[in-house]
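Supplementary Note 3. Input sequence used for the single-chain structure prediction.
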Amino acid sequence: MMKLINVKKNYGLGLSRLEVLKGITLEIQTGETLALVGKSGSGKSTLLSLMAGLDQLDEGEIWVDDKCLGKLNEKELTIFRAINMGIVFQQFHLVSTLTAFENILLPLSLLKQTDAIKTAEELIEKVGLASRGGHLPSELSGGECQRVAIARALATKPKILFADEPSGNLDEETGEKVMDLLFKMVSDTNTTLVLVTHDKDLSKRCSRIVHLEHGSLA
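The predicted structure, written as discrete structure tokens, is reproduced below.
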């Protein structure tokens, strides 16, 4: 599904150059749920951004199926990511001027899917927010916003879902319920999941745990 070969990422120049990732080689199988864990500053979120094509690596290669992300131009990468990847952030990143339903509908509309409205209706029902579909993000709780974000990320039936501390802004009880939903939807669709978390209990729900320490796999 995904292969990382000697992935390196640096920030800064000259004497202030910081090696964030020091040569990561990793394979992720289709349908696998993988947790990336490590202390703050270990490179977890940086690695996730590279895997999702949101940032450029300095050395190495990242492959998704038969596509090398580094060989795609910006337009090709944007289209490839829209079709094949879904992303859930800690901060939700919903469009504030769109309703919950419209946020879920957005990626489907951008890809001009013919059954976009029906798919969005089914998804908002699955995440238990059919009665809240007309509300703006500012009118929703944190848990509700994250449910919308999960539905939006899975709307296009991506091959792989990236989640960066998805329960980090939620209280414990709400976080557990939202993560129950996330894992159920991933399982139902056999979507590959890469989850960045500092929560040990949450990481144990994944089929594999990968530890990062100082930019290297432990």
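The longest strand covers residues 18-28. The two ends are 22 Å apart (CA to CA).
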